[in-house]
């Protein structure tokens, strides 16, 4: 498999082993020789930031990103301010854990007015830039699949994420390409090219048919319909050569032993990504 | 409610009362004074085309569309030819029932190669044009929500549908705007304007949170997050003043008495569309 990506780039996005706490995930990565990890904030908060950092450093793992900031829209200015504050904490956590990428899931609309929600997302990101810069953390706007536009993110396409990134106009803000969210987009390859060196992350999983659940239904790479290798090559051509996170939200995978999941994802990564 | 659309434009898309056969649906429309009906082919085939026509004509209903042609992609040229043939039958059925609109659900990819599937859709539509013209039936490309890109339609945005319609370049081919499929699209209002007088239909329902089912989870108008009135006004400004179909695929609604559904949809239509 000369075309396979280097195992040096493989990262466990921690949500893939949701039943593990951070210590178990770190130990699992060490046992299965997965060199990177992406850490979720709810897992950090279970044991605290210092302990999280120590675990990861002692294990010799690299942190590809922290998940997640964002969730900007809210009806009142004061609520939006609170959300910005929470994003500042997320930036501090990313910096403390030694990663330069905070993934942004931008949030759902607070009413039927989706245009305002999208405006608040851009304003929120803009407001965070100086703080992010000071902490050496980049903000990665991750468009989510349009089926999550009502409850998770009003940023639904790579085109929207690119436009915000261009409007904000600083290398501090870029985009995260997750195959599950963007594979269907007729503008995908054009937008990957447009994103270019603003790509801050590449996440893989698969879209299986039928999908067992709208949220917890992502598949292991190779089990679905996504042209994974084509997309990986496209982000590389655009200039991204960083870690590749396996991010699979799937109840059946959560229910199996974590080491099993890590073995499967390594094999699927080499064969299909 | 001076802003409400005229009841003269209301159409029952027959899938909304899936538990009714065509005769029951026609009688229901008469009882509840719904002037239009959109007929599904599987319901026509239960009783035959002539009987279907007689039922509808005797009741004095108008047919807003026939659902559905499409399903173009297939690996082999001979399979694709068969699908074109089936679309010719659908065109004949539409003509016979006295509607000038056949709704196209364009079909899923036959492999991971989504680009080829999209090419086959455009080729299929192009091939149908002379036959459609001869029968006085227009082909309405209905983009489906991107969550159906793997199993129902590789045409996921109004932009794609507009591009095909423009490429084919005949008034015989247009687009159908269904709020459930396109509400999330950041390019929506631009694309409605672009579609202009090529809009051949407008379908309403709602997007509820949480969605009970990816397929059978559409909501009654007003129960969800979609800016229905804004979209209705946008398609009117673009030039569409034809029937408005209520198309709700929802198991709970299917399980209730059809007359109840028709009463609800009339009230919701006047209040929210």
Low-confidence stretches of chain A: none
Order of helices and strands of chain A: EHEHHEHEHEHEHHEHEHH
CATH topology of chain A: TIM Barrel
The CATH homologous superfamily of chain A corresponds to Divalent-metal-dependent TIM barrel enzymes
Number of domains of chain A: 1
Q: What's the overall average pLDDT of chain A, rounded?
A: 97
Multimeric status of the protein: homodimer
Tell me about the largest β-sheet of chain A.
Answer: 8 strands, parallel, barrel
Description:
Two copies of one chain form a homodimer. Chain A has a single domain (7-272), classed as Divalent-metal-dependent TIM barrel enzymes (TIM Barrel, Alpha-Beta Barrel). Chain A has helices at residues 22-31, 41-47, 49-59, 77-96, 114-134, 158-168, 179-182, 188-195, 228-238, 251-255, 258-272, and strands at 10-13, 36-40, 62-70, 101-105, 138-141, 173-178, 199-204, 244-246. Chain A is an alpha/beta fold and 273 residues long. In chain A, helix 1 (22-31) packs parallel to helix 3 (49-59). The longest helix of chain A has 21 residues, at 114-134. The A-B interface holds A 109, 112-114, 118, 145-147, 149-151, 156-157, 159-160, 183-186, 207, 209-211, 214, 224-227 and B 109, 112-114, 118, 145-147, 149-151, 156-157, 159-160, 183-186, 207, 209-211, 214, 224-227.
């Amino acid at each position: 498999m000369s075309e396979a990506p280097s195992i040096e780039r493989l990262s466990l996005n921690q949500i893939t082993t949701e039943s593990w706490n951070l210590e178990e995930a770190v130990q699992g990565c060490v046992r299965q020789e997965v060199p990177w990890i992406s850490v979720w904030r709810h897992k950090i908060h279970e044991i605290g930031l210092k302990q999280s950092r120590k675990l990861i450093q002692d294990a010799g793992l690299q942190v590809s990103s922290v998940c997640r900031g964002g969730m900007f829209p809210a009806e009142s200015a004061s609520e939006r301010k609170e959300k910005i504050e929470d994003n500042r904490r997320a930036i501090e956590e990313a910096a403390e854990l030694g990663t330069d990428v905070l993934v942004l899931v931008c949030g759902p609309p607070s009413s039927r007015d989706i245009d305002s929600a999208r405006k608040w997302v851009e304003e929120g990101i803009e407001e965070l830039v100086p703080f992010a810069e000071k902490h050496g953390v980049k903000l990665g706007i991750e468009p989510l699949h349009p089926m999550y536009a009502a409850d998770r993110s009003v940023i639904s396409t790579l085109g929207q994420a690119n436009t915000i990134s261009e409007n904000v106009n600083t290398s501090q803000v870029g985009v995260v390409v997750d195959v599950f969210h963007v594979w269907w987009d007729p503008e995908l390859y054009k937008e990957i090219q447009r994103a270019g060196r603003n790509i801050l992350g590449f996440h893989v999983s698969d879209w299986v048919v039928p999908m067992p659940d709208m949220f917890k239904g992502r598949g292991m790479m190779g089990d679905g319909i996504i042209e994974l290798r084509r997309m990986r090559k496209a982000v590389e051509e655009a200039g991204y050569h960083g870690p590749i996170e396996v991010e699979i939200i799937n109840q059946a995978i959560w229910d199996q032993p974590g080491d099993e999941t890590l073995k499967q994802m390594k094999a699927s990564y080499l064969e299909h990504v």
